[in-house]
Amino acid sequence: MKTLFAKTGRCLLPLAGLLLAASAAARTTDYARLVDTRIGTEGVGLASGYLYPGATSPFGMVQFTPSYFSPRSGFVINQLSGAGCRHMGNFPTLPLRGELAVSPGRMFDCRVDVAPGRGHAGWYETHVQDSVRAQLTVTCRTGMARYDFPVSDSLGTVIIGTGVAATAIAQAAVSITGPRSCEGYAEGGEFCGIRTPYKVYFVAEFDTDALRSGIWERERLTPGGRFAEGGESGVYFVFDLRHGRTVHYRIGISYVSVENARANLRAENPGWDFDAVRRAAEARWNDVLGRIEVEGSDPDRIRQFYTHLYRALIHPNVCSDVNGEYMGADFRIHRSRSTQYTSFSNWDTYRTQIQLLSMLAPDVASEVVLSHLDFAEQSGGAFPRWVMANIETGVMQGDPTSALVANAWAFGARDYDPYPLFCVMRRTAEVPGARSQQVEARPGLGQYLEKGYWDASQMLEYTSADFAIGQFALHAVGDEFASWRYFDVARRWRNLYDAESGWLRSRRADGSWKPLTEDWREATYKDYFWMVPYDLGGLIELIGGRAEAERRLDEYFVRLDAGYNDEWFASGNEPSFHIPWVYNWVGRPDKTSEVIRRTLREQYSSAADGLPGNDDLGTMGAWYVFACTGLYPMIPGVGGFTLSTPLFERITIHLRRGDVTILGGSEKHAYIRSLRIDGRPCDRAWVDWETLAQGAVLEYETAARPGRWATRELPPSYD
């Protein structure tokens, strides 16, 4: 297979090459237009995707879009997909009819009428003030807009908020450098109440000279001003529309310098052909989305599938410039060996997204792994948990990056030396107080290692990570002694089992039990009870066997829309994602497929509010893809899938070493009657990655009623 992107910056290709790719893509399925970017952009509270509808490239630095957090404030240049706290949203721009008369201030309070709009992969369109048509597209590191003003208007204004973002910022500066250009920078603001002092730089240009320009700082508008600084500031350009009603705008960014932002703009977007840039963006998306081809009778399901696959391939994001420079975790400029990535929501993505990325784009996934190594080495020696730009926010818990790296290796992303990564894993897992920037990697590690228990939900994340480290030690590094040590530590989940209550629960330092409801992060004890995916057989035996486990699962799945404090299945919450497949470990794969079908039917739709929770940087998107293909990466650090009924009649997954073809799936029939893999019968709801990695054919026979398939031979369990 072709590499995902050219080596000259991974998501950068010369425009001529992109146009060739675009023409080639035009001869096949236009996957980019199957994507509906409006899905998940609305909702209330936890039942919201927190998604933006605008334009981005696969793993691109730029997201050119209305902000989820304030859609009417303008089109911002950076936004994470599905992150639930206000963040980023730098350099919003808006076209306005006439000439600016008052300061836009923070822009969020402008109340400009911006229509909901529509979009597909690489392109977005809406209307501002009812009659100004705005279209957006992107390259990897630049955004481009085409603003079409009404023919009746003689003047039009474009504003750019430089001291404006989704959260309040204090440091920002902008300079008007000519009749059609400006440049500047801004500091990052915050995320979930945590200061994120990254700096982002920009260079912006128009395709025609402005009639006049000016600045604003808070409530003061200064016509003819050329420099503004601080929060709630920006610039504006007024255009004479009598000789042309279309104004083109382009912006390049960098997290290193204005000079690099200019170089990114010149390298990736030197001209003014909006349609050519859009076609190139669509071609990039057609390449990556076409890595999975599905055939089915339900067009709405296909639309949802490719929309979720699209979401799964937005992050992580390129953070190195065309010259290879990037801002490191030590706040120094480094030069990347290939392409550097950021935007790591690892508590989420280690469960689904990294496995999918490693399968479809192992070259990108390998560079993501190396980016984590660089971040750890630059930040104090331990892995981070949740990174925005070059900032470790410390959001969430556990040691997800160790599991993420192990998962990448297990699913084929292996273009690196694993030993340095193993050293970071060991430091993170064995050195109490080890930090990434100012964030402690594993709180409570000393007690966990000494006494074998800690706060329950954190500890269960630790034990899963330790099991994954053991797998990485064994298969990637070849250190059998270390692997057995980590496997032994992972068995300590049993120290949380309270025989009297029959549940896992937290213990105090003296060993006494805490109340059953304490120490569950964004979940309940019933969610985290099943957070032993590597030893489900041991867990099921501990509580009395399959019948008791099945009873508990049946009670749990009475509802599918639980909140953080509800004792049912929370289909939009990561600690619950794997639980439908636990039925496979009690010999009831029919119930696995039933719950998944119910979830896809009741909790997902193609509406704007069609997600049951935050996408979390592609985590939910990848979950949806796996649920539809009937493959789920259940066990941390283990290359393999537990199975359920695929939804499509034919699925082709293009892997590096061969194609996986899945036949016989059905929207109508929920149950598996039989399965053959490369012509050989398979009566187990599990398939190893190595069975699929070089290509394979899975032939399903489905039925309307449950049968006996996979009821006797169970998926693997490691005790």
Tell me the overall shape.
globular
Proportion in β-strands: 15-25%
Second-tier CATH architecture of the domain at 15-289: Distorted Sandwich
Major pleated sheet: 9 strands, antiparallel
The secondary-structure class comes to alpha+beta
Number of strands: 41
Radius of gyration computed on alpha carbons: 26 Å
The side-by-side strand order for the widest beta sheet comes to 7-8-9-10-21-16-13-12-19
What's the oligomerization state?
A: single chain
Which blocks of ≥5 consecutive residues have pLDDT under 50?
A: 1-9, 12-27
Q: What helical percentage do the residues reach?
A: 25-40%
Query: Overall mean pLDDT score?
Result: 94
CATH classification, class level of the domain at 15-289:
Mainly Beta
* CATH overall fold name of the domain at 15-289: Beta-galactosidase, Chain A, domain 5
How many DSSP H or I helices?
18
**In whole angstroms, how far apart are the ends?**
38 Å
Detailed description of the structure:
Helix 6 packs parallel to helix 8, helix 7 packs antiparallel against helix 8 and helix 8 runs parallel beside helix 11. Among the domains are: about 280 residues, Beta-galactosidase, Chain A, domain 5 (Distorted Sandwich); about 160 residues, Up-down Bundle (Glutathione S-transferase Yfyf (Class Pi), Chain A, domain 2). The chain has about 725 residues and is α+β, with helices and mostly antiparallel strands. The relative contact order is 0.10. The protein has a nine-stranded antiparallel β-sheet with strand order 7-8-9-10-21-16-13-12-19. Strands 22-36-37-41-38-39 form a six-stranded mixed β-sheet, covered by helices on one side. The protein has a five-stranded antiparallel β-sheet with strand order 6-11-20-17-18, with no helix packed on it. It contains 18 helices and 41 strands. Strand 36 and strand 37 form a beta hairpin. The longest helix is centred in the middle third of the chain and has 22 residues.
